Input
Amino acid sequence: MIIYLNKSEFDYCKQLSDQKRADAIKYGLKDNYNFIKKSDYNYAVNNISFKTETEDRGLRGEYVVAKALNLIKNWNYRLANPLIKEKKQPDIIGNTGTIYEVRTPNKRFGKLIVREGDRYDAHYILATELDLYTYKIVGWTMGVVAMQDCYWSAPDPKRELCWAVPQNKLFDFKEILNKELGVDKRVL
Output
C-alpha cells in the first residue's frame, strides 16, 4: 500500500521531530532509538545528522501508518517527558486496543527489526520510505512471530543483535486495514 504525505503533513512531522530532540536535550534524556552500541555512543552524539535523519524517518513512518489506519488521534509521537516512567509507549493504539509498533528502515528493501525488550504482543508494521513524501506499507507480523531463532541476526554491524524479519515473511497489511477500518479485502 502506497501512502503519500503532503507538504503540511511532512512539515508537521519535522516540527514534532525537532521538538522531540529539543525536549530530550532540555531534560537530559538519552536517544529513544538506542541505535548505536554503547561503545559507539560518542559517534551518535557527534553525528547529529545521522540521528536526525533516523529519527525523522521513523516519525514519518509512524505518521504514515496512523494515517493509513485513520488513527492519527491514537498516534503517540512521544515528545520527551521525564515524568513518564514507562520505557516505551506504543507507537499507535488501535480502536480495539491493539498495539502497533512501526519500523521504518533506512533501506527500501530493509527488514522489519524487533529488538530485545520489545513487546511480544504487539503488531509490528514495516513502512519503507520511497522518497521524502512517499511511503510503502510493506506488511506486518506479531512480535511473538518475529522473535524466532531463525530471524536472530546482526543486519547492521554497528547495532546490537536483533530479530530481522524479511519482507517476504510479513503478513499482508490489508488484514490490519480490515480489522481497524472494516474494509473488505477484495476491494483493495
Q: What stands out?
A: Residues 176 and 182 are 9 Å apart (CA to CA). The beta strands are 2-4, 92-93, 99-103, 112-114, 123-131, 134-142, 152-153, 162-165. Confidence is low (pLDDT under 50) at residues 32-41.
